[in-house]
């Protein structure tokens, strides 16, 4: 794999897992109370 491909893969993984972690933290701090 080329260097640019590895950099793009790392960027995509950080974006994906970072967004997932951020959403988990947000839901933990602000639980969705529909009732």
From TrEMBL:
A Pfam family this chain is assigned to: MaAIMP_sms
Superkingdom per UniProt: Bacteria
InterPro entries: MaAIMP_sms
NCBIfam families listed in its UniProt record: MetS_like_NSS
Protein name: Methionine and alanine importer, small subunit
Lineage: Bacteria, Bacillati, Actinomycetota, Actinomycetes, Mycobacteriales
